[in-house]
UniProtKB/TrEMBL annotation:
InterPro entries for the chain: AAA+_ATPase (IPR003593), ABC_carbohydrate_import_ATPase (IPR050107), ABC_transporter-like_ATP-bd (IPR003439), ABC_transporter-like_CS (IPR017871), P-loop_NTPase (IPR027417)
Main location (coarse class): membrane
Gene Ontology annotations for the cellular component aspect, listed alphabetically: plasma membrane
Keyword list, A-Z: ATP-binding, Cell membrane, Membrane, Nucleotide-binding, Repeat, Sugar transport, Translocase, Transport
Location of the protein in the cell: Cell membrane
Lineage: Bacteria, Bacillati, Actinomycetota, Actinomycetes, Kitasatosporales
Membrane-topology annotation of the record: Peripheral membrane protein
The protein, known as: Sugar ABC transporter ATP-binding protein
Mitochondrion as UniProt keyword: no
Any one GO molecular function term: ATP binding
Domain ABC transporter residue range list: 6-241, 250-500
Gene3D superfamilies: P-loop containing nucleotide triphosphate hydrolases
UniProt KW Transport keyword: yes
SUPFAM superfamilies: P-loop containing nucleoside triphosphate hydrolases (SSF52540)
Length: 515
């Protein structure tokens, strides 16, 4: 049996009105990759904060290598040997990559911080995860995926004995994810315990040895060998009942009318060249590609956030030139559910009612711009009910909701405005299995009612589940397109062949010329 590095016994944490942790236990052993699983709201994030000194436990006991401990701050936990990479980025945008990586223990010379000496350890940590970044680049200039990788390098710099990774692959491509798994395996081989928090069970089974499952603030499985459980066993433990994965209802799209959105030979100031694609009424078209392929950037150019330098955009057959998201919404009926819900999707410090109705204030307004509170509440309440958003009341702050419910609020505001085309960017990053399934059903239902949807996702399973067609991008170019027969093995093979430059092998079997 390996050494137990960190152990939690009967951990309790109480917040006003809620018992977030109720007797949780876990045991983290040296050299193990330990999965911490549970739906949103199960208590995973709270447990991580207790283990890392953000919150003191209200009951129970923490032991570090057999000795009782009580961390008074995250810095104290870090100095003990516990590192964490949170799901939400925790970097200083104005600092360089090297400064962020070395932030907890910067090299010094004669009592002064030696910034020049930061590059070497930063490059070493980046090299461990196979990332080629200039250590002097300001973090604020990086993409979401690059920031996530810098967070991981930052944790490697502290040489933690226990490293907690909260949804570390949320913004990574399959290739980057596998590279991260290699790093995790190397860390485990040298005696580090890596705690892996993820909603992607295929990743959990690929890399983890042991598992703890939380449900409603309690441990329903405590530090057990993962090999003893199947995928379905784990899902059932998480949701408390058998979980159905029945197929979605059949759906057709309108092929007779002009596409809701059509791009022809579009080039942008961001670097896209000759991009053509279309999305029809009632159709879900997927945009897939490795991180850095230019998918989100293309969406933002469509919305007027970047300059279109060549080509043409048509909305329902009419050529348009969109200059702003406001114009995209109010003139052309285009909504955008962003991947960065906390910074761009919702107003965290504003109530739910205001978040949902912000897109229709102009429609609801009376004389002198007055928006009747009664109509606001009615509009918001209808969408809360339709989308199954779990809230305590319409005046609850959006920042108090789980990630899945925040994403539903972000979607609700566009539905309130009667959008006809919805661009959905990484819709289920960081949400649990049941919420993810509900979100898939919701998007499928919306398409069935005539909404055109352009879906950007790095989750290949999600893409195969939802898309009618998949357009593959790489390096700001269109690499090809394939119809989706919803067969994961077949589709994943076609898509990967397109990414790696073998388009002749990526067409559907029925489309191949036997000659």
């Amino acid at each position: 049996m390996s050494e137990v590095l960190l152990e939690g016994r009967e951990i309790v944490k109480v917040f006003p009105g809620v018992r977030a942790l109720d007797g949780v236990g876990l045991r983290l052993e040296a050299g193990a990759v330990h999965a911490l699983l549970g739906e949103n709201g199960a208590g995973k994030s709270t447990l991580i904060k207790v283990l890392t000194g953000v919150h003191p436990p209200d009951g129970g006991q923490l032991l570090w290598r057999g000795e009782a401990v009580r961390f008074r701050s995250p810095l104290e936990a870090a100095r003990t040997g516990i590192g964490v990479v949170h799901q939400e980025r925790n970097l200083v945008p104005g600092f360089s990559v090297a400064e962020n990586i070395c932030l907890q223990a910067p090299p010094s010379r004669r009592g002064m911080i030696d910034r020049a000496a930061m590059s070497a350890p930063a490059l070493r940590c980046l090299a461990e995860i196979g990332v080629d970044l200039d250590p002097q680049t300001p973090v604020g200039q990086l993409s979401v995926a690059q920031k996530q990788l810098v967070e991981i390098a930052k944790a490697l710099f502290t040489e933690s004995r226990v490293l907690l990774l909260d949804e570390p692959t949320a913004s990574l491509s399959p290739q980057e994810t596998e590279r991260l798994f290699e790093v995790i395996r190397r860390l485990a081989a040298r005696g580090t315990c890596v705690v892996f928090v993820s909603h992607k069970l295929e990743e959990v089974f690929a890399v983890c040895d042991t598992v703890t499952v939380l449900r409603d603030g309690q441990s329903v499985l405590d530090s057990a060998p993962l090999a003893q459980y199947t995928h379905d066993d784990v899902v059932n433990l998480m949701v408390g009942r058998a979980h159905t994965t029945a197929g979605l209802a059949p759906r057709t799209c309108d092929t007779a009318s002009p596409p809701a959105l059509a791009l022809s030979g579009v080039s942008t100031a961001a670097g896209h060249r000759d991009i053509s694609l279309d999305v029809r009424v009632g159709e879900i078209v997927g945009l897939y590609g490795l991180v850095g392929a230019g998918r989100s950037e293309l969406a933002k150019a469509i919305l007027g956030l970047d300059r279109i330098e060549a080509g043409e955009i048509r909305v329902h057959g009419t050529p348009v030139r969109i200059n702003s998201p406001r114009q995209a919404l109010h003139k052309h009926g285009i909504g955008y559910v962003t991947e960065n819900r906390k910074e761009e999707g919702v107003f965290l410090e504003q109530p739910i009612v205001r978040n949902i109705t912000v897109t229709v204030w102009r429609k609801l307004a009376r004389a002198l711009g007055y928006v009747p509170a009664k109509e606001e509440r009615a509009t918001a309440a209808d969408l809360v009910a339709r989308l199954g958003i779990r809230i305590s009341g319409l005046q609850q702050l959006a920042g108090e909701l789980s990630g899945g419910n925040q994403q539903k609020v972000s979607l609700a505001k566009w539905l309130a405005a009667d959008t006809r085309l919805l661009i959905v960017d990484e819709p289920t990053v960081g949400v649990d299995i049941r919420t993810k399934r509900a979100f898939h059903e919701l998007l499928w239902e919306l398409a069935g009612k005539g909404l055109a949807i352009l879906l950007i996702s790095s989750d290949l399973g999600e893409m195969v589940t939802l898309a009618d067609r998949v357009v593959v991008m790489g390096n700001y170019r269109r690499l090809g397109e394939t119809d989706n027969d919803h067969d994961y093995e077949e589709m994943s093979g076609r898509i990967i062949r397109l990414i790696h430059g073998r388009p002749e092998e990526a067409v559907a079997p029925a489309e191949r010329n036997p000659a």
